[in-house]
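Structure tokens please, single chain.
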Amino acid sequence: MEQQQIIVNIESGVPLMHPDKFAEQIGRTPGVIGGWIDAGYLPTVKVGRYQLINLALLTENLKKGFVL
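Here you go.
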């Protein structure tokens, strides 16, 4: 799957989450989440030096039937 690159204005209110926090929330290891990001399964946005998970786009993808 192709990695999506999205530019987000942080003030826009798009929900973003650090991969480590996402891993904690869903009960997976940070390594698994990193693998999912590298494989393009999780949409991310780069904010400074951080690559954050775009929860809004992830939710939209899941509603369309995309399964991790």
